[in-house]
Amino acid sequence: MKQFFSVADVANLPDIVDEALRLKNNPFVYGQLGTHKTLGLVFLNPSLRTRLSTQKAAANLGMNVMVMNMDKDGWALETRDGIAMNGTTVEHIREAAAVMGQYCDVLGIRSFPKLQDREADYSEDLFQKFIAYSGVPVVSLESATRHPLQSLTDLITIRENWHQSRKPKVVMAWAPHVKALPQAVPNSFAEWMCRAQGEGMAEFTIAHPPGYTLSEQFTHGATITHVLDDALADADFVYVKNWSSYEDYGKIHPVSGQWMLNHSRLALTNQAKIMHCLPVRRDVELASEVLDSPHSIVIQQAGNRVWAAQAVLKRMLEQLSVDK
Amino acid sequence: MKQFFSVADVANLPDIVDEALRLKNNPFVYGQLGTHKTLGLVFLNPSLRTRLSTQKAAANLGMNVMVMNMDKDGWALETRDGIAMNGTTVEHIREAAAVMGQYCDVLGIRSFPKLQDREADYSEDLFQKFIAYSGVPVVSLESATRHPLQSLTDLITIRENWHQSRKPKVVMAWAPHVKALPQAVPNSFAEWMCRAQGEGMAEFTIAHPPGYTLSEQFTHGATITHVLDDALADADFVYVKNWSSYEDYGKIHPVSGQWMLNHSRLALTNQAKIMHCLPVRRDVELASEVLDSPHSIVIQQAGNRVWAAQAVLKRMLEQLSVDK
Amino acid sequence: MKQFFSVADVANLPDIVDEALRLKNNPFVYGQLGTHKTLGLVFLNPSLRTRLSTQKAAANLGMNVMVMNMDKDGWALETRDGIAMNGTTVEHIREAAAVMGQYCDVLGIRSFPKLQDREADYSEDLFQKFIAYSGVPVVSLESATRHPLQSLTDLITIRENWHQSRKPKVVMAWAPHVKALPQAVPNSFAEWMCRAQGEGMAEFTIAHPPGYTLSEQFTHGATITHVLDDALADADFVYVKNWSSYEDYGKIHPVSGQWMLNHSRLALTNQAKIMHCLPVRRDVELASEVLDSPHSIVIQQAGNRVWAAQAVLKRMLEQLSVDK
């Protein structure tokens, strides 16, 4: 594996999920694989789960880890080509990425979208340039449009919590929020679940209010409804998530009806397990009564971030030793 | 040891002091104890000594360390229950603590008081919730009302510098400052010294101006005076420290008389050793002529932070292997 | 080696360059030298290359590394003596340095000049006090007037790229910028190149506009011209760098003529290799057409920062074991 940016970078979906679960049972069995290999984690935005779980995964593999809070400890980055850098940006991503590639065997980068120019955000310009110029394998720690370590984690968590022979019904349910959030997590979850559905691993439904349709490239094959209660009927897993509008890009539209999941709504489901990528706004996105109930698997889900990262890093390290 | 928050978490005071001094003489003898164990250090406030000494202690024990500057690199934390999170806080401590507990075998957290609401600060709400929700052993890196790693260090340092059969006279002397500081360090030093006095290890006196009485729960058994020179008479150790008012909570009262320790004041003592937790405001809290004299043991004291942290982490690691 | 602050701290210049290149070929051969040794990296200013390359170098030697962003995660430092600390600075460098020396076997520190008071900056007061009070070997990560890890890197890179028996002609060419930058990098490069020239390793020329003369202590022996094209004639290496005025301290003077290196200027040289310490302002300091051409060795140069740091740290570790 030379990059981990979208589900397309995974050749065999069940394989990587199985491998992550084997690593969870036996975290240190590849503890020598990363000897003398350095992982650089570059953050242009805040991070708790991604920061710590990826560090932990790398330590389990015996890697050296260096964290770079580029937004605070480094220099303001320029990504545009063909302009004279006479403004406030101090270093071009061409140099910054190439230099970090000199010091690191694998790089991870987090960069949120600005939510102002859809075309710019969806071009994934920064991320693609980072890959192009760094010259080493790159893991997305969440980019403008995707969060693949989260999505792999989500599949692992569903697998861990499903013990029946029929396919689970998985619902991604839009939830209210006070801020405009990126589409990266829902895009990515949809992309991975549509792939899983195509491989017979699940049935996937998305429920959101009018005005919150995601880009079709991520949701192709999903059942989509504007009626939350219809979606919740017989759901085995409910993935709660807010996102801002893709159509009226980055905006928050007023919605009619109640979209926060609570106990009475939960009763519509098939005793569903409740998932969320966190951080979650209690009693805005999701009722505390649900979060604090045994239905919630959000902490287990967050814990699984380690094994998703470890499975990805393991494959990159194996590729490095093949390429040598 | 499953938590280290106050002196009550230490079963045998002389034992842990002795152990810390043995570790100082032989820092790497338990270098395998922390193999495959991760320490997470969570800072909601600045830190120099605590940050570096605790990292160093963990490294001496072979632990993996992850540092999280929550105030800058993570998300704004909510601690209140029963409110809808529709304001500026992004993540509830219930989730944040539980998630970090997924990634770390032991956690440390630093959180200063706001000095605005005494009841809120002294409830130690954040720290207690962090313990409750993280599910792993937690070390205080200074909480609203206590700084136990500092106090253990202080006892170690007094032990190291006392070679007579009689009990040393230890004086905690209030000192001037330009800002309102928490009571955490003086509360904690008093709590530990009162315990030490009760076990026949020292005689403990506190000197402060009127209006600066500490909460009696920390000072029970100490001799308390408003006359600094009386306290200094025959003192073997003088612990210099400013704090803001506990009574008129978080306020600075004008004080009469001179409260800064200088050479002429030092002459009243029994050639006392001078201690301070640092950082110290030179020539405001403590005269440079004292700080730069052989009487000052503040650097040795700061160095001992490593061994206090290492003794505590060692006990937590041993407990983890027992619980397994 | 007990300090690394200027070229004067290097006894034998070709030796350390050779050693760095041997380390590049065999990075892990001294992987046990740093066992149980801790490097503390203290940043008072932003850093990308220095931060990551020095961490990497220390890891290659098996050292434990602790990074301290003093400007953000610690306390505001006072450096003046003889004043009462009743202002905004919280800790004096006397204590801060001494305390960090308690926790670390080797320290590195970065501190930029303020560019307001030449005498203050050129006294290197902060750096010298840090050395004096820390009590351990100190590596400059760039001080007010010098950047020796960069300059050693530059010599390594020239050596790597020169395979002829005659001495290479090395030109340091002033370049335009939008901000007032320190003289640390050009001072340091000049200091190291003048030493190299004195030892028959190169011929060294500096080209800058009137008003940008560097302090003679750094440039003694160099050929200095105000005519860029004259300097470029037959150049084998061109080191592009902006600096603010030393004479009219910290100021930017309007310059006449074109000072940015581009393809047509490059044609004047002997197919010169182009160097820059980075970050570089594209199409302000240096034309993109040059940066993106095979003439540019700026990424290789940045990569070599690891080997310069590793050679210096190796010597300090060896000294520590001698002193023991």
Automatic annotation (TrEMBL), chains A, B, C:
Pathway: Amino-acid biosynthesis; L-arginine biosynthesis
GO BP terms, alphabetized: citrulline biosynthetic process; L-arginine biosynthetic process via ornithine
Positions of the Aspartate/ornithine carbamoyltransferase Asp/Orn-binding domain: 204-314
Reactions this protein catalyses: N(2)-succinyl-L-ornithine + carbamoyl phosphate = N(2)-succinyl-L-citrulline + phosphate + H(+)
GO molecular function, one term: ornithine carbamoyltransferase activity
InterPro entries, sorted: ArgF'-like, Asp/Orn_carbamoyltranf_P-bd, Asp/Orn_carbamoylTrfase, Asp/Orn_carbamoylTrfase_sf, Asp_carbamoyltransf_Asp/Orn-bd
Residues bound to N(2)-succinyl-L-ornithine: 142, 177, 241, 281
One Pfam family here: OTCace_N
Superkingdom field: Bacteria
Record keywords, A-Z: Amino-acid biosynthesis, Arginine biosynthesis, Transferase
Enzyme class: transferase
EC numbers: 2.1.3.11
Residue ranges annotated for the Aspartate/ornithine carbamoyltransferase carbamoyl-P binding domain, each copy included: 3-160
Binding of carbamoyl phosphate, residues: 47-50, 75, 110, 147-150, 277-278, 305
Role this protein plays: Catalyzes the transfer of the carbamoyl group from carbamoyl phosphate to the delta-amino group of N(2)-succinyl-L-ornithine to produce N(2)-succinyl-L-citrulline. Is essential for arginine biosynthesis.
Family of the protein in this entry: Belongs to the aspartate/ornithine carbamoyltransferase superfamily. SOTCase family.
Oligomeric form and interacting partners: Homotrimer.
The protein, known as: N-succinylornithine carbamoyltransferase
UniProt organism field: Parapedobacter luteus
